Structures are given as structure tokens and as C-alpha cells.
Amino acid sequence: MDYQAVLDEVATAVRPLIGQGRVANYIPALAAVDPGRFGMALATVDGQLFGVGDWRVPFSIQSISKVFTLALTLARDGDAVWRRVGKEPSGNPFNSLVQLEYEQGIPRNPFINAGALVITDRLLRLTGDARGVLREFLRVESGNPALDFDPVVAASEATHGHRNAALAHFMASYGNIENPVADVLDHYFWQCSLSASCADLARACGFLARHGQRAGGERLLTRSQAKQVNAVMLTCGTYDAAGDFAYRVGLPGKSGVGGGIIAVIPNLCGLCVWSPGLDARGNSVAGVEALDRFTTLTGLSVF
Ligand code: GLN
């Protein structure tokens, strides 16, 4: 298949949607991003890389980081993770507090903020440096040693992070946070502030297309664990729009409020698309459309 031609066709088709939606502004540093950006990259499991538009421009990965912290924690902790976080879609916005009280401080899944905070807490306990371990993993898998945090975004999010602070303290009251809440929040905000391009992230999610095997050949996850992460991405990766995303795109995917979305085609490739304009659920308008077009044009999906 001529992947470059497909990406070019997708980019042309979504052009009218670029700039639609709203750039996230509850983290003020993200509101400064140009809404006219669009990029898309595809990295095959055997190392080929294709891209279109702004595919080499770094953006704020935000919640896409949650896939990698989950994988890094699962690799160290195995099934014990699932005692502290569920694997069911929440049907609620990513930063919602309401379900947590009914469900005794156990978040529905690792991809809403509450669940991601629990995972960061666990990774911090297991490694002593959750954000550092994450940055190192992304540098190695992407092949980009310059991949780094954005301190302005991290500081902006910390200043305006009242909801995340509320979630973390609330879970701590149920005994579901092991470290001091301030440390967990700090690592979480820095993890979300990582800047990476579509090229970086398409490569970095390759281990999920290779059933748990890293770019260098060593194994991060068992085949079964890679299946678990992909399955949770499919059912929970785009929050309360996960059903619509599965219906339209048919791939495991994970979005972030920076406007990025990664998606995985097992045995074949990692994909990443970026455009900052978000829909009401916090997913990139042009990004979801691009992935929808991609799978429709190519017939490549998990179904
Ligand atoms: N850092 C963001 C937050 O915690 C991540 C949310 C997202 O990308 N959906 O609110």
C-alpha cells in the first residue's frame, strides 16, 4: 500500500475541518497554540516512517502520556494494577469527579484523569521518578533524544490544576494514593507537559503494534498485556466519545487535549495525528476525521 499517497489524500480531505472546534484553554499555556496546525504520521513495525503536514512539529502530548504510564506500570506491577483502577468506560468527561464517590475512590479506567493519577502514583512508588522514566522511554522508542518536557505547560497546569488536585485528594481519602498528593500531582503535570511530534508518537506507540516488543527488540509487555492496553484504549481512550471513535475509526486510540491522537494497527503500524481544535468531549475534530478517513480509505482497522 502507498501510505504516503493515503496520508496526502487524508490531509486534503480534512482541510476544511482544520481550525474547527476550540483549542483547550483551561490550561492557559495550551490556548496559545495555532489552531491552524495539522499533521499526521505513520510508523510501520519494521521501521518505515511516513508523514504529512506538521508531522515533525512538537505539541503537548497531554493525556496521550496515559498510555505509556499504564504500559510502564503494567510491565512492573502486572495485574496488581487492576486492584486500584478499573477497565470500564466511564461515560463521563475525562476530569469528572462524580463517579469516584459512588465507587469508593476506584477510578473507572486508567485513561480518565483520576485513573491516570493512580497510575502515576504507582509508577512513582515503583521507580522513584515516574516522569523521568516516561521521558526516557519516549526518547528511546521515538529515536528522538531531544524529546522533553515543556516547563511552561507544566507550570500552567499546576497553577490551574484544581480539579486534578481535588481528584487526587479525594482518592487519597479512600487510601488509593500511596505517595504525598503533591508529589503525584507534580509528576502527573510534568508527564502531561511532554512535547512530541506526530513522528515521535507514531514510533513510540509501535510497541503496541508489535504486541509488547520495543523498537530495539526487547519486550516491555507480554503479548497478553499489550492486548489489554490496546483493548482499554479502544473502549476508554477517547473518554465519553469512545463509542463514537470505535464506530468511526475502528482502532485502539488515545487522545489528549493538546489535539493529538495516537492509534494502533496491530502487526502493522502506529499512527499519530495532531490538530489543536477540540470537540466538546476534548478530542481533536480534524484528528478524529483524519483517522476515520484513513481507515475508511484503506480498510485497515481491527474489525
Ligand atoms: N493534563 C490534562 C488534564 O489533566 C490532560 C487531559 C487530557 O488531555 N484529556 O486535565
TrEMBL record:
Positions contributing to substrate binding: 63, 113, 157, 164, 188, 239, 257
Catalytic reaction equation(s): L-glutamine + H2O = L-glutamate + NH4(+)
Keywords annotated in UniProt: Acetylation, Hydrolase
Top-level lineage group: Bacteria
GO BP: glutamate biosynthetic process; L-glutamine catabolic process
Entry's EC annotation: 3.5.1.2
Molecular functions per Gene Ontology: glutaminase activity
Keyword Disulfide bond tagged: no
Cross-referenced Gene3D superfamilies: DD-peptidase/beta-lactamase superfamily
Key word Isomerase present: no
NCBIfam families named among the record's database cross-references: Gln_ase (TIGR03814), PRK00971.1-1 (NF002132), PRK00971.1-2 (NF002133)
Assembly and interaction partners: Homotetramer.
Family indicated by similarity: Belongs to the glutaminase family.
Protein name: Glutaminase
